[in-house]
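Just scan my protein:

. . .
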Amino acid sequence: MTDSEQVTTMDCILQEITVASRRLEGMDTAIISLTLETKSMHSEIAGFQTRVTVLEHRMANMESHVHKALDKDQELLFLHSKLPDLEDRSRRDNIRIFRFPEHAEGTDTSSFLYSVLPKLTKIAFDPPLEFRRSHRLGPKRKDGTSKPRLIIACLLRHGQVCQLLSGAQAHGPFKTDGYEIRITADFSRETNERRKGFLALRPRMRQLEVKYGLFKPARLWVTKNGVFKDFCDPEDLQSFLDSLQPQSMDTATPDRPLRPSSNNRSTLPPTINQERARLI
């Protein structure tokens, strides 16, 4: 190989080495850039991990608060279910009197009731009637053609309340001066709504030949073929009547005792004191 050929070969090698060196420098630059980006990503990931940790703690706290709120909600529902019973108990000495003409009581409702109720009900009260308070319910009527407002009276003795309600059940409504006077117990709005729901189902129960009785404050007992069931909710009674066909109500036998519904089990025995009942 001549000297000129050797020089040419060396020049080519040097050129290739220069090109390779430049490529390596470019790779070094890329590697440095990737290293910087990787460090930046590590920093961002660390920030994300911190945020996720904070969010997990917040979620745990929120779940704890939600569980506490649900517990409180259940407690409030339980307390709310007790309110009608407490209100009914607070009204146990009250009576409602319907259809007395407006202004018949004058300026003293208690004195008016003291004089008229014994004559109207023909009950000899001993001791005489005593009222804590009594009044008309609602705003005054502007004319005499409107329906008279009912009277609510709170008696001093609960025994006299029972006497009046028993007399009203046995002999009412009472007629005087062309008016039919009705006397009823005073219940809370929720209890009245349940009682109205039961009363609305009377035609259906008569159609199915089901005997029934509405007991205070709002418990309906039904019986057919010697089998008793009781209901506290008109919707449960509606469902029962929907499933009941004429003459299809089960009867208890020695080998197949009656299994009462878990939703409508009564704490009262079948032989209920009739003095506590207000039959429809």
Remarks:
- The beta strands are 94-98, 131-136, 151-155, 174-176, 179-185, 211-215, 219-224, 227-231.
- Helices lie at 3-90, 109-121, 158-171, 189-200, 202-207, 234-243.
- The chain has a mean pLDDT of 80.
- Residues 205 and 211 are 7 Å apart (CA to CA).
